[in-house]
Amino acid sequence: MRAVVVGAGIGGLVAARILKRAGLEVVVLEAHTYSGGLAGSFYHRGFRFEAGATLLTGLAPGAPLALALGMAGVEPPWNPLPKGFPLLEVLLPKGRVVRPVGLAEEEEAQRDFFGPKVLPFWAWQRDRARRLLALAPRLPWPPEAEEVRRGLPLLPQLLPLLPDLFLPASCRAPEDPAFRRFLAAQLLIAAQTENPYALYAALALDLPHLGAALPEGGIGRLAEALAQGLSVRYRARAVRLLLRGEKAFGVEVVYGGRRRGEREVVEGDVFLLNVHPGPLLGLPERVPQDAWGAFVVYGVLPFRVPPPYYRQNARERPFAFLSLRPEEEKTLFSLSLHTPLALWEGLDPEGYGRAKALWLERALALGEALLPGLREASSLFAATPRTYRRYVGRAWVGGIPQTHPFRFPRVRLLPNAFRIGEGVFPGQGIPAVALSGVRVARLALAYLGLRPPESFPGLLEPFGHPLP
């Protein structure tokens, strides 16, 4: 039996490895020359930059990424940062607050900066995050029809969480303008909205404490580790999913590189789409009305920057997020801002150039407040929503803004075709897309009537019931 995975992002690679370990023939189709998608790395003028994601977390024992990598048979060669490490510094109108690794350490930092009034919020956040993490590997979310019945045994564990499914995060926060601004800035990174529903916010705020690491050479090293041993066809752009009745039987592929212009139909028994499925099904792209684009500035600084390696300017809008990666006597950086998608639509070349120059100046001014000397960077260049549309296939990045818990597309598109990645809740962040790969591998094996290997206990008993 053959599984065809379209898109070599983290979710697709995790699913591909699990299915290969379960005995399937697996083919991965990737339109670009590198794996990882928005969690990959690319070269520019001899330097290796991050395509999108810059923070790797979830590597603590039992944390989502560690679980997914274990099922995929990959042991990352990076150790999580120690407790107390200054992971992220946030610039606010009243000063700078550091988010260190470790729950107790963060609680102390929060109390020292904002006062004891914020401690009940963090106690609530820890409790909800702990409960969710215990459920995450078994929770069928978003639910598919056949999984609802099997998920019923989890209902007693879900009941205490239900109120926070329908409350915005702001309802749990103290009435402190400085803290609420801090909270909005953090959640905009993780949830693509400043005020997501409370349960999602609780887990998103826990990411720094789930085993954050600084992978040598960048985030893309993880995708490269996952791709090893897989049959990945690069420069293979999937253009159409071919149907026979209600099921898919193949993917039409157009090759680039040395095979430029060649077309082929890659047939399979199950299809896993780690890309936006609309174009493959002949459907228009559906962009959420409140989706954001990204404006990202890349550069190389001629000096080594000490930690914190992640810094956020929440003193003024748009909030700017600076990621730093020291290498010998230099530091590579990416500086990202959320930008409205409508701003970049319908621009002629001259108007596009003006908008890009304006946002570059705005980004550097915000970045200088985080790190003086940022303007000294060499190899300076920027990416806009148009850039992402060209390389990723869509202008909007970061998944669906998590404003309520029932905002997600279906995972199963056809009886034998499934969707993976950040376009499917809970798909923001590397741990989430990795878990989405686990889930889709589980669904694909169930469709084929196969049982996972005995070494995959997390797949053998999803949702509290053995697979048929």
What share of the residues does DSSP label as strand, in percent? 15-25%
CATH class assignment of the largest domain? Alpha Beta
CATH superfamily of the largest domain: FAD/NAD(P)-binding domain
Give the overall average pLDDT: 90
Outline type: globular
Number of domains: 3
The biggest beta sheet reads:
7 strands, mixed
β-strand number: 18
Kindly identify the CATH topology of the largest domain.
Answer: FAD/NAD(P)-binding domain
Please tell me about this protein's structure.
This protein has helices at 10-21, 64-72, 103-114, 119-135, 145-151, 155-158, 177-191, 198-204, 220-227, 349-370, 385-392, 430-448, 457-460, and strands at residues 2-6, 25-29, 41-44, 47-50, 86-92, 95-100, 231-233, 236-244, 247-255, 263-267, 270-273, 292-301, 310-313, 320-327, 330-340, 378-383, 412-414, 417-419. The protein is an alpha/beta fold. It folds into three domains: 2-74 and 219-287 and 399-464, FAD/NAD(P)-binding domain (3-Layer(bba) Sandwich), CATH 3.50.50; 101-138 and 152-204, no CATH class; 292-392, Alpha-Beta Plaits, CATH 3.30.70. The longest helix is centred in the last third of the chain and has 22 residues, at 349-370. The chain is globular and about 60 Å long.
